[in-house]
Amino acid sequence: MPNESNASPLLTVSSSPHFHGGDSTRGVMIDVLLALLPAGVMSVVLFGPRSLLLIAVSVLSCLFFEAVTRRLLHRSFTLGDCSAAVTGVLLAFNLPVSAPWWLPVIGAFVAIVVVKQFFGGLGQNFVNPALVGRITLMVSFPAYMTMPQWPSPRLLQSADAVSAATPLAELANGTVPSLSQMTTVAAPYNPLSMLLGLRPGSLGETCAAALLIGGLYLCLRRVISPVIPLTFAATTVGITWLAGQNPYYNLTAGGLLLGAIFMATDYATCPISRNGKLLYAFGCGLITAVIRLFGNMPEGVSVAIVLMNILTPHIDRLTLPRPFGVEKARRGRKGEQA
Amino acid sequence: MNNRYTKELTKGLLAENPVLRLCLGTCPTLAITTSLKNGLGMGAAATVVLLCSNVVISLLRRVIPDKVRIPAYITVIAGFVTLVQMVVQAYLPAVYDALGIYLPLIVVNCIILGRAEAFASKNPVLLSAADGLGMGLGFTLTLAVMGAVRELLGAGTIFGLPVLHTPMLIFIMAPGGFFVFGLLIAAANALAARLGRKPAQKSGCAGCPAAHECAGECQTGGNDQ
């Protein structure tokens, strides 16, 4: 490189492959941040400037904890790879707009320090940091996180209705219109308002259109393969449809799109091969559907993804591709050898 | 000589802390440390049993036949556990209810059986008493610290007195127990490293109850009788 004047070696000896694709962690993470931008903008439009405050607090605390922990553990400085910023945005997207400002700080501590850095940093975490942050907050502060009434977008608020049950809770209660009647209903359960995010929910999950745009961008940039989001969403929607629930709401309500596009596809915690990805995403979808249908919580996306994260190493071993020309090793019984 | 007693008494606090360095007695540690009071109660009960059983087993060490020593130890330990259980039930019914099944389960607590096997069966009475008391104090201290942390963060109280406004409920649930346990092990390792000791690892044969059966074969791999 021309600008490195001092002691730059003339010849670089390295092992093959010698072509560098130009991809870097930083590039991937910036793509993810860009893909999250539409949903972020929509959250500010829908829920007001407080949404921006929560996202900012979450991102800044993630960056802060990452820098401090790396420093204390005498490891390299990693703020530049932007992975902590992605975790911060995802964590904030999982909070209701009414959350107190210190909630994302605690979530960021759990996500970055406990889940990510204690296990060795980016790539070593065995579960998605932002999701464990969210689950910890949900279990620890149910008063702020799992209220039956979630804040509604400002556009929907009238003087006496600041919060309402989420569509998923209504789905579980059976008070949601069926496929044929839903074009005639008003605001929160109208198909268009579900698509645009005019419904109660957490910051980043409500606007299905913005999440889909982000997902499309990531697929076109080949940052993620569409296998996981498609399989995940199709499994959940298919199973709940077979069980008699309205498939449109199961797709657009709750955190399914946010989880399937942005959380389940985390490189470090999902399987490598295509078959592995299929199996993993099917598991995510199945657990989500089972929790939605039978669980005592209305939503199960985060728990489903974390459970499948834990199974990922086993799925990877199970779906190891066989090298060309190699015969499958015969299973000999232990007793036969002795 | 004096030196030896202090060594046996203090080793349980950090150097050979049964929970944090030897990783024994994990089940009661995780299960009952939801409050400081429970931690202290469990620690005290186990300490009394440990002290008494170490003394008795040390006295009987030349009488108990080698082949039936484990049943013999358990019988001695179970006797003291029954005593302690009755005393706690009579005088501290609240603690008795809180400890539940974990109080009678002290019988099979591996710390107590481990000390009987590894120490009391080979050492004179007074040394065994010091060992039992030291290990018991280490166990109690650890449970008290864990109970205090979990009660403070998870219920917002200390000894039932309100301190924190908004508790983090996860700390009095099972995952919170594992979080605090892991962090305390890390802290104990860091402290021990600062004091110039090796970090906790495979405890080797010294702490292993099966040591004189296997004579180190478990580590070399040749364990076929």
Q: List the secondary-structure elements of chain A in sequence, H or E.
A: HHHHHHEEHHHHHHHHH
Briefly note the CATH topology name of chain A. Ammonium transporter fold
- Rg calculated over all Cα atoms of chain A: 22 Å
Gross geometry of chain B? globular
CATH A-level architecture of chain A: Orthogonal Bundle
Mean pLDDT of chain B comes to 85
Explain this structure to me?
The complex is a heterodimer of chains A (338) and B (225). Chain A has helices spanning 25-47, 49-72, 83-93, 102-117, 129-140, 142-145, 167-173, 191-196, 208-220, 227-242, 247-252, 256-263, 274-294, 301-318, 334-337; strands at residues 149-151, 163-165. Chain A has 338 residues and is mainly α. A two-stranded antiparallel ribbon of chain A has the order 1-2. In chain A, helix 1 runs antiparallel to helix 2 (49-72), helix 1 (25-47) packs parallel to helix 3 and helix 13 (274-294) packs antiparallel against helix 14. The longest helix of chain A has 24 residues, at 49-72. The N and C termini of chain A lie far apart (62 Å). Chain B is mainly alpha-helical. Chain B is built from ten helices and two strands, in the order αααααααββααα. Chain B has helices spanning 2-10, 26-32, 36-59, 69-91, 93-99, 110-120, 125-154, 174-194, 211-214, 217-220, and strands spanning 157-158, 161-162. Chain B has a two-stranded antiparallel sheet with strand order 1-2. Classes of the chains: A mainly alpha (338), B mainly alpha (225). Chain A binds chain B through residues 106, 114, 136, 139-142, and chain B through 166, 168-171, 173, 175, 179.
